[in-house]
TrEMBL record:
GO terms for cellular component: cytosol. NCBIfam families: HAD-SF-IA-v1 (TIGR01549). This is HAD-IA family hydrolase. Keywords: Carbohydrate metabolism, Hydrolase, Magnesium, Metal-binding. GO terms for molecular function: metal ion binding; phosphoglycolate phosphatase activity. Transmembrane segments: none annotated. It comes from the Bacteria. GO terms for biological process: DNA repair.
């Protein structure tokens, strides 16, 4: 399928639509400090920000005992509830892309593994909640990505057949979910990829170095 056949776009949230790592790592560091462990630099923890709270904890304190690991993870979530969105911003080029999608009357939305209690307040802070007909969080269905359930729910709410949806993500599970759901998968190379990630081996139809490159590719396809 070519980009010209797209009738809707769905985004992963953390590391694809928005740069949420500053808030997530700050929440991690506050929790680490609560238990007397030194804070970690944002640059060193950034790659884990797409993979959930336990991934952040494991990146900061690998091989930690289970009770400490759980304590730091719970503290992270508590701190994040309070600071969610304080230092978050859309990636450069995303705002222009969303404006273009609206101009072209191509609906867009979110399918994320982030729990709804964090997703919706964040989208409100970013002034996106009223622009998106689809906001699927990690607990909107019984199974998160890479399961097809949230993807297919997103397609249903977008009122668009999966084969006409472009799904953008920065983690392998995003592309596995897109393929399983029959969507066109695009890799957001600007996201939180780690040194061990191999996006060239993910089941994607396209790779985009930046939101601006994605925007240009879509504009060219619809010209």
């Amino acid at each position: 399928m070519s980009l010209a056949q797209i009738k809707g776009v769905l985004f992963d949230l953390d590391g694809t639509l928005a740069d949420t790592a500053p808030d997530l790592v700050q929440a991690l560091n506050l929790s680490l400090q609560d238990v007397g462990i030194a804070a970690q630099p944002l640059a060193a923890m950034r790659y884990a920000a797409s993979h959930g709270s336990f991934a952040l904890v494991d990146a900061a304190i690998p091989n930690a005992a289970d009770d400490l690991r759980t304590q730091v993870q719970q503290g992270l979530l508590a701190h994040y509830q309070r600071i969610n969105g304080d230092h978050c911003a859309l990636f450069t080029g995303i705002a222009a892309l969303l404006d273009w999608l609206e101009l072209m009357q191509l609906p867009f939305g979110i399918v994320t593994n982030k729990p709804a209690r964090f997703t919706r307040p964040l989208l409100r802070k970013l002034n996106l909640h009223l622009r998106m007909p689809v906001i699927i969080s990690g607990d909107s269905t019984k199974h998160p990505k890479p399961h097809t359930a949230p993807m297919l729910l997103g397609a249903q709410q977008l009122n668009c057949a999966p084969e006409h949806i472009l799904y953008l993500g920065d983690a392998e599970r995003d592309l596995l979910a897109a393929r399983a759901a029959g969507m066109l998968g695009g890799v957001a190379l600007w996201g939180y990829l780690g040194v061990n990630d191999k996006p060239s081996q993910w089941p994607a139809h396209a790779h985009f170095a930046s939101p601006t490159e994605l925007h240009q590719a879509l504009a060219d396809a619809f010209a």
